[in-house]
Amino acid sequence: MTVTAQPAVGGEAPPGAPGSVPRRRTGRVRRNVLPYLLLLPALLLELLVHLVPMVIGIVMSFKELTQFYIRDWGAAPWAAFDNYSLSVDLDAPVGEALLHSFFVTCAFTVLSVGLCWLIGTTAAVYMQENFRGRGFLRAVFLVPYALPVYAAVITWAFMFQRDNGLVNHVLHDQLGLTDGPSFWLIGDNSFVALLVVSVWKGWPFAFLIVMAGLQNIPRELYEAASIDGAGLFQQLRRITLPSLRPVNQVLVLVLFLWTFNDFNTPYVLFGQAAPEAADLISIHIYQSSFVTWNFGTGSAMSVLLLLFLLVVTGVYLVLTSRGRRTADA
Amino acid sequence: MRRTRAAAASAVTVSLLAAVTACGGGSSTDGGSNDSPKTLTYWASNQGASIEADKKVLTPELKKFEKRTGIKVELEVVPWSDLLNRILAATTSGQGPDVLNIGNTWSASLQATGALLPWDAENFDRIGGKDRFVGSALASAGATGSDPAAVPLYSMAYALYYNKKMFEDAGVDGPPATWDELVADGKKISKGGKWALGAEGSNLSENIHHVFVLAKQHGADFFDADGRPDFTSDGAVAAVKQYVDLMGKDKVVAPGNAEYAQNQSLQDFAKDRTAMVLWQTAAATLQAHGMNDDEWGVAPVPVQSGTPGAGTAVNSMVAGINMAVFKNTDNVDGALEFVEFMTSDAEQKLLNKTYGSIPPVKAAQEDPAFSTPALKVIRDTLAGSAAPLPQVPNESQFETAVGTAVKELFAEAAAGRAVTTASVKEKLDEAQQQMPKK
Amino acid sequence: MPRTTTRIPAAPPAGRPAAARSPMAPPRSFVWSRRIFLTLLTGFVLLPVYVMLSSSLKPLQDVSGEFRWLPSGLTVRPYIDIWSTVPLARYFVNSLIVAGAATVLSVVIAIFAAYGVSRYRFRGKRLFTVTVLSTQMFPGILFLLPLFLIYVNIGNATGIALFGSRAGLILTYLTFSLPFSIWMLIGYFESVPRDLDEAATVDGCGPLGALFRVVVPAAVPGIVAVAVYAFMTAWGEVLFASVMTNDTTRTLAVGLKGYATQNDVYWNQVMAASLVVSVPVVAGFLLLQRYLVAGLTAGAVK
Q1: For chain B, which residues make up each domain, given as ranges?
Q2: How far is CA C297 from CA A59, A131, B197, in A?
Q3: Which of A48, A166, B349, C115 could form a disulfide with A159 if both were Cys (CB 3.0 to 4.6 A apart)?
């Protein structure tokens, strides 16, 4: 990723290319060391908990790490690219299923992130102005975030039951929208069910972050705009959204990454085997590693996923940073 | 000063990487030792009404053991949802308990990791000999032809539970003995929102247990003699089709059961919505859902024809819990003593009575408590007509692949689409191709 | 190179009225659309909560029965039983300790890192931010065993027991929330006018003085949002907790699964316990939320 044009999160300095020594600073040595010291704790923790395990994961992907070898990883034979060729062999069921699951995950992620962001932002913007009950609503909206995932998703699974669930009770019994009770937890509808649960669980986070971001917009901007005759919609377009840009850039990106890798929601909703229509890639990887005790293949799939997400993130950062620059000019 | 700190930090990082990569699987000592002869750690599986209830049951027994041997046992009851992951982590890192419970279907898979102490003749002698245990239970403790990786602790088998009142209402005089009878009776019962049989269509393990038995009845196995998957034999296809047809073609299973995975079928049974379920121990759960013991009866699971027995008259898998010792324990002698204690006649009677299971120890089975009508059916099944699930290292892959195939076929049937021999075979073929090649 | 838009114009243009409230009331159509939207949203949010509440008040045999808006035969029994079926109180305390410590540490460490990135130019900055972000791209399920292995090896080498202990879990969770916290705080810090901390530096504060006296107070809403996020990350994590804890250190999120036993799931108790443990969290949020909306420049600009 060569995003040299501009740092992603509006840092002012270009990346520390060789030779770009800070200028105009006094006490140079101290100033040179200080930023690294500030970063050090974070860096050490990331190394310990994220990066080293990730490197191990990448190493695992080149090994034949089945139950015969998990006791002593060093002894596991090298598999070269076997795990990878198995994962991408589109003519065989494993590769085919992985590709299918990849597309399902992509569609699911785009829809879920889009809806989470839209609902979260709309709610935050509507609640920018004070009105009676605002504080209460704010707490209510964070309830999905505060409830334990397991219980919340189980509750949705209850509601989506075909014979005794609330959803069919309303859609079929009370509104008469469907001819017969539909299945939500198996078959094609399961995609919808998963999406609903995911949005229910995910939008409060977008709401929280956007709400905090809105606090950084000075009131005076709105006042100036309204004096200039700008309507609410124009204020939204000209002030609110541009000001939220840096927050949104990160928010959408991490929502995307989390949703793409979300494991808990489909796992609790569908159990070990998700229906084909809702077969997210995380469940797929879980099945290919933990359930079948084959950590090599699971790791290879994860590395492929990592590469894909790296590319997406890189493109995303380039595009959004460029967009931001033109908006600024 | 600061530079040294940065240097120290990178040194830590490097050594960390080195430590991890060098140690690999971390299990430094291969065999066990007796370095700490006075303590043991024991992971028990959740058998009773709750984890706390299990602790109340086991703690006095562990005290008894401590009094007798001076060995203090640290007990942790691990919930089922965590048990396999905990064992995997323990296996990988060498950091685990000394003694643990495992689901008996995991035996061969865990055996393949080499983390468990093999039960050779010498070890068996120390707990009173191999002959004390029921054969079918022992056959579910590791790959055929090798020393068992574990010792049977609690045994179970499937039985047919039937709702007496619903049978009476539909004019069915007794539990069916064959599948044809079950379907015929079932058609009488399945009317007006009532259904004949319950199934947990989205529960992979349940699916496997039933199609495995049906395959046996069709003279087929899911693995050949060399342990290679063989999912698409005529018998296996017929078995899967027969099971799914109970919903799709025979219409004795409610379509809604296709999404069941949390024992909902048992709740339907307790509420007089379903007349029969194939289950292991149901009494306590039925009670909790408001059904009294005299409202239901127990019979052997149906066979294709005749009466249950060996070969194609098998009518249950061998279900149960085994007890294993981690090979790298630092108290081998204590661990063996503890297994001996837990499999002693007295403890076997007491524990199995409490949990509603059958002791895999022959002598303990003599206790009259295991001769109630319900338990007698299960005991006879275990003794004469139960077969162990394939004891191959790939068992868990098999459960996932074939269990999912059956789940998807149920979904088809529930949606009203036809399930044909060809479509079953295609699904099973796909499942087989997902199995590891080696 | 143009200045980035993250630098929101800080001081109002001279001559504009600086009243605290908007001079005009919002139009009726806006008020109505807001009412409709927020009502629908509240319904969507609370529907499962209602189902949870009504399920938690039913006897077990009724829980899975046919859905009715107004259930009958309610009982508070589940709310009594939850404490004895699993050691709920202990799990709750564990969760509080783990999530609380992870939050505090994570926020502090993220503040330092974000300040470093937003206020200094140095070699490797971009590498740092991108690397930190890339950690969000690998499925957690595959971190699990390597991380466990690392903790065990650290334990063997140094005697510090990280697996099975709260410390190990705290360390894990605080790192989980770090990447996003750092990225978000960089954004918030960027929007705090740089002239402010430069002025503070001139006034004799060191860089850290400027950070804590100027930048942090000005970024309170962002910090609180990040803290809420860090807390929730630790509060709700299931997978790692299931492997890295034992009976004495188990957290709520996994502990709740204890209501699902081999033969039966105590649905009513799962729901009751979830509601009980969520009440303090929501209450805590109610208390916190006024900081979440404290204005950007509480007295800092003028």
Answers
A1: 39-155+318-387, 159-317+394-433
A2: 49, 22, 68
A3: A166
Name the CA radius of gyration of chain B, rounded. 24
Contact C232, C103 (CB under 8 A): no
Give this complex's ipTM: 0.83
DSSP C265: B
Q: Which CATH number fits domain A83-328: 3.20.20.70, 1.10.3720.10, 1.10.730.10, 1.25.40.10?
A: 1.10.3720.10
Record: fold of C75-292: MetI-like fold (1.10.3720)
CB contact under 8 Å between B77 and C64, yes or no, is: no
Q: Do A70 and B92 touch (CB under 8 A)?
A: yes
What's this model's pTM, rounded to 2 decimal places?
0.86
Residue A152, helix vs strand vs coil: helix
Cβ atoms of C67 and A166 within 8 Å: the answer is: yes
Give domain B159-317+394-433's CATH superfamily: Periplasmic binding protein-like II (3.40.190.10)
CA distance B245 to B412: 11
Kind plus residue range of the DSSP H or E element containing B319: strand B319-325
Query: What is the fold of B39-155+318-387?
Result: D-Maltodextrin-Binding Protein; domain 2 (3.40.190)
Which residues of chain B make contact with A273, given a CB cutoff of 8 A? 202, 204, 400, 403-404, 407
Per-residue pLDDT tens, chain B, 438 aa: give them.
444 545 554 555 455 444 444 444 434 445 678 888 889 999 999 998 888 889 999 999 999 999 999 999 999 999 888 888 899 889 888 888 999 999 999 999 899 999 999 999 999 999 999 999 999 999 999 998 899 999 999 999 999 999 999 999 999 999 999 999 999 999 999 998 899 999 999 999 999 999 999 999 999 999 998 889 999 999 999 999 999 999 999 999 999 999 998 888 998 999 999 999 999 988 888 988 889 999 999 999 999 999 998 889 999 999 999 999 999 899 999 999 999 999 999 999 999 999 989 999 999 999 999 998 889 999 999 998 999 999 998 888 899 899 999 999 999 999 999 999 999 999 999 999 888 765
A155: its two tokens: 């509750």
> CB of B16 within 8 Å of any CB in chain C?
yes
Question: Closest residue of B to C152, CA-based?
Answer: B93
